[in-house]
Amino acid sequence: FSSGRRRHREPAAEGCPPGDGGSMRCQQVSVLYFARSAELAGLRSETLSVPRQITSLQLWEEIVKVHPRLAVIRDQVVFAVQQEYVLLGDQLLVLQPGDEVAIIPPISGG
Amino acid sequence: MDESKDVPKDFIKLKSEKLSVDEVSELVISPYCGAVSLFIGTTRNNFEGKKVIHLEYEAYTSMAETEIKKICRDVRQKWPSVKHIAVHHRLGVVPITEASVIIAVSSPHRAESLEAVMYCINTLKASVPIWKKEIYEDEYSWKENKECFWANSEK
Protein backbone atom coordinates (compact mmCIF):
# COMPACT_ATOMS: atom_id res chain seq x y z
CA PHE A 1 0.00 0.00 0.00
CA SER A 2 1.83 3.02 -1.29
CA SER A 3 2.05 5.87 1.20
CA GLY A 4 2.52 8.22 -1.72
CA ARG A 5 -0.91 7.39 -2.99
CA ARG A 6 -2.77 10.53 -3.82
CA ARG A 7 -6.43 10.98 -3.14
CA HIS A 8 -8.31 12.54 -5.98
CA ARG A 9 -11.82 13.80 -6.44
CA GLU A 10 -13.85 13.05 -9.53
CA PRO A 11 -13.82 16.23 -11.61
CA ALA A 12 -17.24 17.78 -12.16
CA ALA A 13 -18.83 16.10 -15.20
CA GLU A 14 -18.46 18.30 -18.27
CA GLY A 15 -21.61 20.18 -19.16
CA CYS A 16 -23.29 19.52 -15.82
CA PRO A 17 -23.95 22.67 -13.86
CA PRO A 18 -22.91 22.63 -10.21
CA GLY A 19 -25.72 22.45 -7.72
CA ASP A 20 -27.97 20.01 -5.96
CA GLY A 21 -27.65 16.34 -6.73
CA GLY A 22 -31.39 15.78 -6.97
CA SER A 23 -33.01 16.38 -10.33
CA MET A 24 -29.73 17.82 -11.56
CA ARG A 25 -28.04 14.42 -11.33
CA CYS A 26 -25.97 13.91 -14.44
CA GLN A 27 -26.27 11.30 -17.12
CA GLN A 28 -23.82 10.18 -19.77
CA VAL A 29 -25.43 10.41 -23.17
CA SER A 30 -24.09 9.64 -26.59
CA VAL A 31 -24.22 12.71 -28.88
CA LEU A 32 -24.11 12.22 -32.66
CA TYR A 33 -23.34 14.98 -35.17
CA PHE A 34 -24.38 14.91 -38.83
CA ALA A 35 -23.82 16.97 -41.98
CA ARG A 36 -23.14 20.65 -41.25
CA SER A 37 -23.25 20.11 -37.49
CA ALA A 38 -20.43 17.53 -37.77
CA GLU A 39 -18.36 20.04 -39.76
CA LEU A 40 -18.94 22.79 -37.18
CA ALA A 41 -18.32 20.56 -34.14
CA GLY A 42 -15.35 18.88 -35.80
CA LEU A 43 -16.45 15.38 -34.82
CA ARG A 44 -19.15 12.78 -35.47
CA SER A 45 -19.82 11.49 -31.97
CA GLU A 46 -18.89 11.80 -28.32
CA THR A 47 -20.12 11.09 -24.82
CA LEU A 48 -21.33 14.07 -22.83
CA SER A 49 -22.54 14.34 -19.27
CA VAL A 50 -25.80 16.27 -19.02
CA PRO A 51 -28.51 16.68 -16.37
CA ARG A 52 -30.96 13.76 -16.31
CA GLN A 53 -33.96 16.06 -16.69
CA ILE A 54 -33.46 18.94 -19.05
CA THR A 55 -35.45 20.84 -21.66
CA SER A 56 -34.43 20.35 -25.27
CA LEU A 57 -33.34 23.98 -25.46
CA GLN A 58 -31.19 23.59 -22.33
CA LEU A 59 -29.64 20.47 -23.84
CA TRP A 60 -28.76 22.48 -26.96
CA GLU A 61 -27.14 25.14 -24.79
CA GLU A 62 -25.07 22.48 -22.97
CA ILE A 63 -23.81 21.18 -26.30
CA VAL A 64 -23.03 24.70 -27.60
CA LYS A 65 -20.92 25.30 -24.46
CA VAL A 66 -18.71 22.43 -25.64
CA HIS A 67 -18.84 23.42 -29.35
CA PRO A 68 -19.53 27.16 -29.66
CA ARG A 69 -19.36 27.06 -33.47
CA LEU A 70 -22.68 25.20 -33.48
CA ALA A 71 -24.48 28.37 -32.40
CA VAL A 72 -24.88 29.53 -36.01
CA ILE A 73 -27.24 26.65 -36.87
CA ARG A 74 -29.47 26.91 -33.79
CA ASP A 75 -32.52 28.00 -35.81
CA GLN A 76 -32.22 25.18 -38.30
CA VAL A 77 -31.68 22.07 -36.22
CA VAL A 78 -33.79 19.65 -34.27
CA PHE A 79 -32.72 16.78 -32.06
CA ALA A 80 -33.42 13.11 -32.39
CA VAL A 81 -33.52 11.63 -28.88
CA GLN A 82 -33.58 7.83 -28.97
CA GLN A 83 -34.50 8.26 -32.65
CA GLU A 84 -37.56 10.43 -32.06
CA TYR A 85 -37.51 14.01 -33.39
CA VAL A 86 -37.61 16.73 -30.73
CA LEU A 87 -37.80 20.46 -31.51
CA LEU A 88 -35.53 22.83 -29.57
CA GLY A 89 -37.75 24.34 -26.91
CA ASP A 90 -39.52 23.67 -23.64
CA GLN A 91 -40.04 19.96 -24.09
CA LEU A 92 -38.74 18.21 -20.97
CA LEU A 93 -36.46 15.28 -21.69
CA VAL A 94 -35.81 12.51 -19.19
CA LEU A 95 -32.54 10.98 -20.28
CA GLN A 96 -31.35 7.47 -19.40
CA PRO A 97 -27.67 6.51 -19.30
CA GLY A 98 -26.39 5.82 -22.80
CA ASP A 99 -29.34 7.48 -24.55
CA GLU A 100 -28.58 8.58 -28.09
CA VAL A 101 -29.01 12.28 -28.88
CA ALA A 102 -28.44 13.32 -32.50
CA ILE A 103 -28.13 16.84 -33.92
CA ILE A 104 -30.31 16.89 -37.03
CA PRO A 105 -29.72 19.71 -39.55
CA PRO A 106 -32.36 20.18 -42.29
CA ILE A 107 -32.63 16.91 -44.17
CA SER A 108 -32.13 16.36 -47.88
CA GLY A 109 -32.64 12.70 -48.69
CA GLY A 110 -34.07 11.44 -51.93
CA MET B 1 -53.68 -20.57 -55.38
CA ASP B 2 -52.26 -19.81 -51.95
CA GLU B 3 -51.59 -16.12 -51.56
CA SER B 4 -50.70 -16.64 -47.90
CA LYS B 5 -47.31 -17.82 -49.10
CA ASP B 6 -46.63 -14.41 -50.70
CA VAL B 7 -46.46 -12.40 -47.48
CA PRO B 8 -46.12 -8.63 -48.00
CA LYS B 9 -42.54 -7.54 -47.46
CA ASP B 10 -40.58 -4.31 -47.07
CA PHE B 11 -37.08 -4.23 -48.56
CA ILE B 12 -35.05 -1.33 -47.17
CA LYS B 13 -31.40 -0.78 -47.96
CA LEU B 14 -28.91 2.06 -47.53
CA LYS B 15 -25.65 1.31 -49.34
CA SER B 16 -22.68 2.99 -50.97
CA GLU B 17 -22.62 0.79 -54.08
CA LYS B 18 -24.39 1.70 -57.33
CA LEU B 19 -28.14 1.05 -57.17
CA SER B 20 -29.81 -1.35 -59.58
CA VAL B 21 -33.27 -0.77 -61.02
CA ASP B 22 -33.45 -4.43 -62.05
CA GLU B 23 -32.63 -5.60 -58.55
CA VAL B 24 -35.14 -3.29 -56.85
CA SER B 25 -38.02 -4.07 -59.20
CA GLU B 26 -37.38 -7.80 -59.00
CA LEU B 27 -37.69 -7.62 -55.21
CA VAL B 28 -41.33 -6.50 -55.41
CA ILE B 29 -42.58 -8.64 -58.28
CA SER B 30 -45.41 -10.93 -57.22
CA PRO B 31 -47.59 -13.37 -59.17
CA TYR B 32 -50.62 -11.80 -57.44
CA CYS B 33 -49.75 -8.29 -58.67
CA GLY B 34 -50.39 -6.81 -62.06
CA ALA B 35 -48.54 -3.59 -61.34
CA VAL B 36 -45.04 -2.58 -60.28
CA SER B 37 -44.53 1.18 -59.96
CA LEU B 38 -41.09 2.72 -59.75
CA PHE B 39 -39.45 6.03 -58.82
CA ILE B 40 -35.79 6.69 -59.56
CA GLY B 41 -34.10 9.85 -58.21
CA THR B 42 -31.02 10.72 -60.27
CA THR B 43 -28.25 13.29 -59.92
CA ARG B 44 -28.67 16.46 -61.97
CA ASN B 45 -25.62 18.28 -63.37
CA ASN B 46 -26.72 21.80 -62.41
CA PHE B 47 -28.29 23.91 -59.68
CA GLU B 48 -29.14 27.62 -60.13
CA GLY B 49 -26.66 28.02 -62.95
CA LYS B 50 -23.83 26.27 -61.11
CA LYS B 51 -22.24 23.12 -62.45
CA VAL B 52 -22.69 20.17 -60.09
CA ILE B 53 -19.70 17.83 -60.05
CA HIS B 54 -21.36 15.12 -57.96
CA LEU B 55 -23.51 14.58 -54.86
CA GLU B 56 -22.48 13.13 -51.52
CA TYR B 57 -24.98 11.56 -49.13
CA GLU B 58 -24.72 10.70 -45.46
CA ALA B 59 -27.31 9.22 -43.13
CA TYR B 60 -28.19 8.56 -39.51
CA THR B 61 -28.49 5.00 -40.70
CA SER B 62 -30.33 3.27 -37.88
CA MET B 63 -32.93 6.05 -37.61
CA ALA B 64 -33.26 6.36 -41.40
CA GLU B 65 -34.14 2.67 -41.65
CA THR B 66 -36.66 3.04 -38.82
CA GLU B 67 -38.27 6.08 -40.48
CA ILE B 68 -38.48 4.27 -43.83
CA LYS B 69 -40.15 1.32 -42.05
CA LYS B 70 -42.71 3.79 -40.65
CA ILE B 71 -43.37 5.04 -44.20
CA CYS B 72 -43.95 1.45 -45.35
CA ARG B 73 -46.36 0.89 -42.47
CA ASP B 74 -48.25 4.07 -43.42
CA VAL B 75 -48.40 2.96 -47.06
CA ARG B 76 -50.00 -0.35 -46.06
CA GLN B 77 -52.59 1.47 -43.94
CA LYS B 78 -53.49 3.86 -46.76
CA TRP B 79 -53.34 1.31 -49.59
CA PRO B 80 -54.06 -2.12 -48.09
CA SER B 81 -53.76 -3.91 -51.41
CA VAL B 82 -50.06 -2.96 -51.75
CA LYS B 83 -47.98 -6.13 -51.74
CA HIS B 84 -44.23 -5.43 -51.57
CA ILE B 85 -42.30 -2.19 -51.06
CA ALA B 86 -38.60 -1.66 -51.78
CA VAL B 87 -36.65 1.50 -50.91
CA HIS B 88 -32.95 1.61 -51.77
CA HIS B 89 -30.96 4.78 -51.04
CA ARG B 90 -27.35 5.31 -51.95
CA LEU B 91 -24.82 6.81 -49.54
CA GLY B 92 -21.47 8.42 -50.25
CA VAL B 93 -20.56 9.83 -53.66
CA VAL B 94 -23.20 9.65 -56.42
CA PRO B 95 -21.96 10.73 -59.87
CA ILE B 96 -24.12 12.70 -62.33
CA THR B 97 -26.99 10.69 -63.90
CA GLU B 98 -26.64 7.85 -61.42
CA ALA B 99 -29.48 6.97 -59.08
CA SER B 100 -29.47 8.12 -55.46
CA VAL B 101 -32.82 6.55 -54.60
CA ILE B 102 -35.03 3.84 -56.12
CA ILE B 103 -38.51 3.07 -54.79
CA ALA B 104 -40.62 0.17 -56.11
CA VAL B 105 -44.11 -0.89 -55.04
CA SER B 106 -46.27 -3.75 -56.29
CA SER B 107 -50.06 -4.03 -56.13
CA PRO B 108 -52.76 -6.03 -57.93
CA HIS B 109 -53.89 -2.94 -59.90
CA ARG B 110 -51.90 0.12 -60.91
CA ALA B 111 -53.62 2.98 -59.02
CA GLU B 112 -52.44 1.89 -55.58
CA SER B 113 -48.78 1.30 -56.42
CA LEU B 114 -48.55 4.56 -58.40
CA GLU B 115 -49.97 6.55 -55.50
CA ALA B 116 -47.89 4.66 -52.94
CA VAL B 117 -44.62 5.36 -54.76
CA MET B 118 -45.39 9.08 -54.81
CA TYR B 119 -46.26 9.01 -51.11
CA CYS B 120 -43.00 7.18 -50.33
CA ILE B 121 -40.68 9.65 -52.01
CA ASN B 122 -42.57 12.70 -50.73
CA THR B 123 -42.55 11.42 -47.16
CA LEU B 124 -38.92 10.27 -47.37
CA LYS B 125 -37.96 13.82 -48.26
CA ALA B 126 -39.89 15.14 -45.26
CA SER B 127 -38.85 12.73 -42.54
CA VAL B 128 -35.86 10.46 -43.19
CA PRO B 129 -32.52 11.62 -41.68
CA ILE B 130 -30.39 11.57 -44.82
CA TRP B 131 -28.34 14.58 -45.99
CA LYS B 132 -27.12 15.55 -49.45
CA LYS B 133 -24.09 17.71 -50.16
CA GLU B 134 -23.93 19.22 -53.64
CA ILE B 135 -20.33 19.60 -54.84
CA TYR B 136 -19.70 22.44 -57.34
CA GLU B 137 -16.43 23.45 -58.99
CA ASP B 138 -15.32 25.88 -56.28
CA GLU B 139 -17.57 25.18 -53.32
CA TYR B 140 -20.23 22.90 -51.89
CA SER B 141 -23.65 23.24 -50.32
CA TRP B 142 -25.64 21.17 -47.84
CA LYS B 143 -29.09 20.92 -49.42
CA GLU B 144 -32.35 21.33 -47.53
CA ASN B 145 -35.57 19.71 -48.72
CA LYS B 146 -38.51 22.12 -48.83
CA GLU B 147 -40.50 19.25 -47.28
CA CYS B 148 -38.33 19.40 -44.12
CA PHE B 149 -40.74 20.72 -41.53
CA TRP B 150 -38.20 22.48 -39.32
CA ALA B 151 -36.00 24.15 -41.93
CA ASN B 152 -36.03 27.90 -42.45
CA SER B 153 -36.48 28.39 -46.16
CA GLU B 154 -35.40 31.89 -47.08
CA LYS B 155 -37.10 32.10 -50.44
From TrEMBL, chain A:
Q: Which domain of life is it from?
A: Eukaryota
The pathway that the record names for this protein is:
Cofactor biosynthesis; molybdopterin biosynthesis
Q: What is the lineage of its organism?
A: Eukaryota, Metazoa, Chordata, Craniata, Vertebrata
Organism encoding this protein:
Spheniscus mendiculus
Which protein, by its recorded name, is this? Answer: Molybdopterin synthase sulfur carrier subunit
Alphabetized SUPFAM superfamilies for the sequence: MoaD/ThiS
Q: Which UniProt keywords apply?
A: Cytoplasm, Molybdenum cofactor biosynthesis, Nucleotide-binding, Phosphoprotein
Q: Gene encoding it?
A: MOCS2_1
In residue numbers, the region (Disordered) covers 1-23
Q: Which CDD domains match?
A: Ubl_MoaD
In the record, biological process GO terms are: Mo-molybdopterin cofactor biosynthetic process
Point out the signal peptide segment: none
Q: Where are the transmembrane segments?
A: none
TrEMBL record, chain B:
- Record's CDD domains? MoaE
A Gene Ontology cellular-component term: molybdopterin synthase complex
Name this protein carries in UniProt? Molybdopterin synthase catalytic subunit
From which organism does this entry originate?
Answer: Aptenodytes patagonicus
Q: What is the lineage of its organism?
A: Eukaryota, Metazoa, Chordata, Craniata, Vertebrata
Instruction: Give the PANTHER family listed for this entry.
Output: MOLYBDOPTERIN SYNTHASE RELATED
The residue stretches assigned to a coiled coil in this entry are: none
Q: Which Pfam family, any one, appears in the UniProt record? A: MoaE
Keywords associated with the record: Cytoplasm, Molybdenum cofactor biosynthesis, Transferase
SUPFAM superfamilies reported for this sequence: Molybdopterin synthase subunit MoaE (SSF54690)
Tell me the Gene Ontology biological-process terms attached to this UniProt entry: Mo-molybdopterin cofactor biosynthetic process
Stored Gene3D superfamilies = Molybdopterin biosynthesis MoaE subunit
Q: Name one GO molecular function term.
A: molybdopterin synthase activity
**InterPro entries for the chain:** MoaE_sf, MOCS2B_euk, Mopterin_biosynth_MoaE
